[in-house]
């Protein structure tokens, strides 16, 4: 009988020790919300929650006349890619944009190359191609309306938009 009590107490102590070592808050462990990349950090990773980094960091900005994803935005693409690989049912649309300089046709093509560059990086990180749609709006949907260099820089981007 005493060995049975000893085993029970040992199992209880081991369970308590393992629970104390958990890096995931226990109240979020079974939420089924598709936490993706933020599970170990305790961040809410939900693209439809305004407090989530997935909702707050959706744009990748580019240099003038370029469609190369800058190194400083790699972590944004990685964060979204991690979420998408963990949530295979989720779909996105990557929308490419350009600043007001240049012709409409040129800017549509440049915006498309920007959206495809982000999509290509995501597929290299494990996202399935059928989860991603690419489109270009060229210079037709500016984020900043002025004509300063700062305004132009704000408009040279690819936006990651989640589909409901």
UniProtKB/TrEMBL annotation:
A Pfam family matched in the record: OmpA
Major localisation: membrane
Signal peptide boundaries: 1-19
Membrane topology: Lipid-anchor
A single Gene Ontology CC term: cell outer membrane
Coiled coil: none
Localization annotation: Cell outer membrane
UniProt keyword list: Cell cycle, Cell division, Cell outer membrane, Lipoprotein, Membrane, Palmitate, Signal
Alphabetical GO biological process terms: cell division
Stated role: Part of the Tol-Pal system, which plays a role in outer membrane invagination during cell division and is important for maintaining outer membrane integrity.
Protein name: Peptidoglycan-associated lipoprotein
Gene this chain is encoded by: pal
